[in-house]
Amino acid sequence: MRILEIRERTVPLAGNVANAVVNFSEHTVSLVALISDQTVDGRTLVGFGFNSIGRFGQAGILRERMIPRVLAADPSTLLASDHRTFDAAAIAATAMRNEKPGGHGDRAGALGALELAVWDLNAKLGGEPAYRTIARHFGHSVERRPATVYAAGGYYYPGASMKRLREELKQYRSIGFDAFKLKIGGAPLAEDMQRIETALDVAGDSARLSVDANGRFDLDTALEYGRAMQPLGLRWYEEPGDPLDYALNRAIAEAYDGPIATGENLFSAIDASNLVRFGGMRPGKDIFQMDAGLSYGLTEYTRMIGILEQHGITRAQCFPHGGHLINLHIAVALDLGGCEAYPGVFQPFGGYPPECDVADGLVWPTEVPGFGLELKRELRTHLDILT
Amino acid sequence: MRILEIRERTVPLAGNVANAVVNFSEHTVSLVALISDQTVDGRTLVGFGFNSIGRFGQAGILRERMIPRVLAADPSTLLASDHRTFDAAAIAATAMRNEKPGGHGDRAGALGALELAVWDLNAKLGGEPAYRTIARHFGHSVERRPATVYAAGGYYYPGASMKRLREELKQYRSIGFDAFKLKIGGAPLAEDMQRIETALDVAGDSARLSVDANGRFDLDTALEYGRAMQPLGLRWYEEPGDPLDYALNRAIAEAYDGPIATGENLFSAIDASNLVRFGGMRPGKDIFQMDAGLSYGLTEYTRMIGILEQHGITRAQCFPHGGHLINLHIAVALDLGGCEAYPGVFQPFGGYPPECDVADGLVWPTEVPGFGLELKRELRTHLDILT
Predict the structure, then answer these.
(1) Residue of A8, A244, A274 to mutate for B, most B C-beta atoms under 10 A
(2) Residue B12 and which of A108, A157, B233, B323 are 20 to 30 A apart at CA?
(3) Are the C-beta atoms of residues A144 and A130 closer than 8 Å to each other?
(4) Count of H helices and E strands in chain A?
(5) A21 in B contact zone (CB under 8 Å)
(6) What is the ipTM score, two decimals?
(7) What are phi and psi of B40, to 5 degrees?
(8) Are A45 and A39 contacting, i.e. CB atoms less than 8 angstroms apart?
(9) Where are the alpha helices (DSSP H) in chain B?
(10) Nearest C-alpha in A relative to B59
């Protein structure tokens, strides 16, 4: 059994939305296809993965460095010990051969896309949904169960109004979401507070509303927002400052009573370890949002969870960034606190296909083999081109 | 005045050498050319830069993200206030538009190559060597002066012997170097200690010999090497462990009396800041090796120096990684402690052209306009192809 070919394609994200820092209209995603030599009912088994949402496709790193290393390896070294599945950790290590330590940025996304495609392929080899393959591998229940989900929206659209924001959140509620996340930091504090009050009015309960500054604030601004929001008792206050500024994070955690969420821009186990050691994150309270697709894949992501658990942090505190099918399967398989959803934005990757029931803030994974990306209508053209 | 075109080329590094972690034979470098609309004596002025040595070319990130952003910008926004040079910081910020915080890896090298080309171009616009342009910009003396340099070698060559190591270092001494750096961690401790003793015998003085583990060791191994080397009083012990493991670095600094060197795998000001805050680095003692070409260029590199100085660390403690002409000009211009040299390896980028006198452990910068890359014979073909 072997991987015959690895194809990749850079896919633009649809939409004209912005958070406090970036406009997403030029962001792209790498979609990777592992073409195996295995067939089911005459069809070649292909594993698909992508590097989550919100950064960039990594065609250069995949083509020039990682794909050639994997294809040059002795195929037997890439197989699990049962020789019936591929060894995701071995493939990841092979793709990283001759890479130096440090520098966990773009290459972490390149490998994320490739490594996640291994899990899709393994699940298809077993004829089962990916959450079962992942759960079994990491020693969790393989029973079907939903993940707790929240709708991430409230971006800054050109010319958007409070009315639009209210309608956006109401629409999320109408399709089954009962918790929401709103961007802050792209407008003055007074306007952002008005946005938060508007969203609270729809959410009905401050425990159902989080806010996200996307790393924009310096310490003074972060504390100012914290003081203004403190009385509201929001669900969490996400990425107040630079994601690597552990001293700032600690200072905010010491000043702000509510939960802080961060981690979506930490792409390695050592960065996550530093966050826990130096960032003042509180066991049982704060939220960790590392995202396998941006962070070398599931092999590294589970290393991160191991580090958190060594520090008394539970997986219920983990809500991966990136609202899409892959992280839904991961959240279910690993019994995480939940995951994000971006209803209506970041197509063709964002959101879930109609086969995923969303109700009462819970979303059910797909039951077809793999991550079920083939059920995502918006993705079909891209998957077809790769196969 | 404007940049008409930005070209880039991925150049392989020559050589079959390895440190404790990687083999360099598949490493590449991005060479960037900024084609200006200015001419001198009928020749178009072109600024050249590259992303140092030891990681990878970044064609994908340059072509897909950074070059289009710079070329799409209003040219007047990329000029310094005197309109006679380009504004490197503005060009860097433009190239980073819509990039999210965090993830300081490959993209830091892509921008490093591009931003350094701006300094080469600015120096050529002024008809002066780059160290003068850089020194003037940052408020230092523009007088010609040498940098303190050491020869980095002692790599693990296939089948290498102690005799070969001795001859290698003697050869460095014969061409003007009086200080050396040796790789460790690629062999068992006993063999590495024999390598160190052999090198010390050539160096004559332990203050002239450093060792470099390239981030390979876990804490126990790092401490074991530290205990074994402690009595020798070596110049510095470089990158004992993971470059981002600040807790490990602090533990080694607390246990090992001699200077520790690190930083070549930290690619942003916030990472350098974390090293100073959490890594136990000692003012007046330890060595910082951040490298502009790997770290978003000189704009970010000087931010890092500012952070070090805020913590009582002097620029005499800075020895940039990467032994090449660009870092030589930077070390001279910014009055750094010195810089690295790789005589004979990492061609076509490593080392200095014959116009750079090397004697008594000092190396003099080139005097032609810019960084003087055109004087490097091994590079000429690549520069010609780009222009």
Answers:
(1) A244
(2) A108
(3) no
(4) 13, 12
(5) yes
(6) 0.95
(7) -130, 125
(8) yes
(9) 59-61, 67-72, 88-95, 106-125, 130-137, 162-174, 189-203, 219-229, 246-255, 269-278, 298-310, 325-333, 377-386
(10) A60
pTM of model > 0.80: yes
Residues of chain B contacting residue A105, judged by C-beta atoms under 8 Å apart? 102-108, 267
- Nearest residue of chain A to residue B215 (CA atoms): A101
CA distance A26 to A56: 9
Structure tokens at B225: 């090497």
Is B321 labeled as catalytic in the residue annotation?
yes
Q: Which of A98, A108, A273 is opposite residue B22, by nearest beta carbon?
A: A98
Taking CB atoms and an 8 Å limit, are A243 and B59 in contact across chains? no
Residues from chain A contacting residue B70 (CB–CB below 8 Å):
none
Digits of tens for pLDDT over chain A (387 positions)?
Answer: 999 999 999 999 886 667 666 777 789 999 999 999 999 999 999 999 999 998 999 999 999 999 999 999 999 999 999 999 999 999 999 999 999 999 999 999 999 999 999 999 999 999 999 999 999 999 999 999 999 999 998 988 777 789 999 999 999 999 999 999 999 999 999 999 999 999 999 999 999 999 999 999 999 999 999 999 999 999 999 999 999 999 999 999 999 999 999 999 999 999 999 999 999 999 999 999 999 999 999 999 999 999 999 999 999 999 999 999 999 999 999 999 999 998 878 889 998 999 999 999 999 999 999 999 999 999 999 999 999
Q: How far is CA B381 from CA B12, B279, B377, in A?
A: 13, 43, 8
Tell me how far apart the alpha carbons of residues A59 and A110 are, in angstroms, rounded to a whole number. 8
Distance separating alpha carbons of residues B369 and B7, to the nearest angstrom: 20
List all residues 6 or more positions away from A348 whose beta carbon is below 8 Å from its beta carbon: A11, A14, A376, A378, A379, A382
> What's the CA gap between B299 and A267, in Å, rounded?
24
Q: Nearest residue of B to residue A243 by CA position? A: B102
Q: Which residues of A are catalytic?
A: 183, 321
DSSP single-letter state for residue A291: -
CA distance B276 to B308: 7
Contact residues, B window 246-265, toward A, CB-based 8 Å cutoff: 246-247, 265
| d(C-alpha B364, C-alpha B332), whole Å | 9
Angle B269-278/B246-255 helices, nearest 10 degrees? Answer: 40
Q: Is B4 on the interface with A (CB under 8 A)?
A: no
